[in-house]
Design brief:
- The complex is a heterodimer of chains A (about 60) and B (about 260).
- The N and C termini of chain A lie far apart (about 90 Å).
- Chain A has a domain of about 40 residues.
- The longest helix of chain A has 28 residues.
- With about 60 residues, chain A is an all-alpha fold.
- With about 260 residues, chain B is α/β, with parallel strands linked by helices.
- Chain B has two domains: about 140 residues, Rossmann fold (3-Layer(aba) Sandwich); about 80 residues, no CATH class.
- Chain B has eleven helices and six strands.
- The longest helix of chain B has 23 residues.
- Classes of the chains: A mainly alpha (about 60), B alpha/beta (about 260).
- Chains A and B meet through helix 1 and helix 2 of A and helix 3, helix 4 and helix 7 of B.
């Protein structure tokens, strides 16, 4: 007797959507994201020291 | 007059309509039905999945959606994915290193949404306005040439949103339009804006929802499946709207209205 396969496309769709939602970001992706946003942070930090250097006493600037 | 039929009454209803010679094995899904599928915390999630698989697919009925429903499905899933991943960044074990101002904003917004979820059962899905506010915390310096937000969203959405759409297609949900030459036989009249506005005016229904009901009216299909209380209300208010099949809880909720 032929086995009847029960089709559950909507259960499968709901399962796939849940999997996509709860799937954590891969380490590779986290690393790529951090490099994107960290470049941004570094840029802001680079602006600050430039102002500080301008206020340094002359003797320190020569060093 | 259109009827509002509960999922539990569908068997009886189907036996009645499917004996009609003009019956076409097709139906239209609304956005809330699709949202119920993607969001398992919804009270109707299990009910909708079971109904569609057993009663609709089981009876060989094809599910159709229009352009608006398809767009809304993808759009809501986009917001869910962005919300989930952005909120991941404020988890104590997260390895994501977002800028401080982004983290503060995400944390504050998450707190507000969680409060609304606890008290009003509102979904934790960031609104477009809040996503824009978060986007602005990632903006590059004026001369930096950097685009952190676009690059971030590409990482967070690209593959997953496409995978969700492919799964949607794989479920057998078909796009329907009266403008498609090969689908013209599904329709007995043209969809016109005047009709959509008339449906909207009959109960103050949103135009997007009116478009779903107008498409149903212009088609040979006997019913649509909806989990939207506004569509259910419009069906009861307007005698010209075709039948709507809805979760039992929604049909019960509609009993408070007297027409």
């Amino acid at each position: 007797m032929e086995k009847v396969i029960k089709k559950t496309p909507f259960k499968d769709l709901a399962k796939t959507l849940k999997e996509i939602k709860i799937k954590p970001l891969s380490e590779e992706k986290v690393s790529r994201i951090n490099s994107i946003v960290n470049i941004e942070n570094d840029e802001f930090e680079n602006i600050e020291p430039l102002k500080k250097i301008a206020k340094l006493p002359d003797e320190m600037r020569n060093n | 007059m259109g009827r509002l039929v509960a999922f539990s009454e569908f068997n009886e209803y189907y036996n009645e309509i499917s004996n009609n010679d003009s019956f076409v094995k097709g139906t239209v899904l609304d956005t809330n039905i699709l949202v119920s599928l993607m969001y398992e915390v919804k009270s109707t999630h299990d009910e909708v999945v079971k109904f569609l698989d057993e009663q609709i697919v089981g009876n060989g009925i094809t599910c159709y959606t229009n352009v608006i429903t398809t767009a809304e499905f993808i759009n809501i899933f986009r917001r869910i994915l962005l919300t989930e991943h952005l909120c991941d960044s404020i988890d104590e074990f997260s390895k994501l290193k977002f800028p401080k101002k982004a983290q503060y904003l995400i944390k504050r917004l998450y707190g507000e949404y969680k409060h609304r979820f606890m008290h009003e059962k509102k979904d934790i899905i960031f609104s477009e306005t809040h996503l824009k506010q978060i986007r602005d915390t990632f903006s590059g310096g004026s001369h930096s040439g950097l685009k952190p937000w676009p690059e971030l969203t590409k990482e967070l959405l690209d593959d997953d949103l496409l995978r969700a759409y492919k799964a949607y297609e794989l479920a057998g949900i078909k796009y329907i339009s009266p403008n498609e030459e090969v689908q013209k036989h599904y329709f007995h009249k043209k969809m016109i804006w005047e009709e959509t506005i008339k449906v909207s005016s009959s109960s103050g229904l949103a135009i997007f929802d009116s478009m779903i009901l107008t498409a149903l009216d212009c088609s040979h299909f006997s019913f649509a499946i909806s989990a939207d209380s506004d569509i259910a209300y419009a069906t009861l208010a307007d005698p010209n709207i075709k039948d709507i099949i809805a979760p039992d809880s929604l049909v019960k909720e509609m009993k408070k209205y007297k027409f």
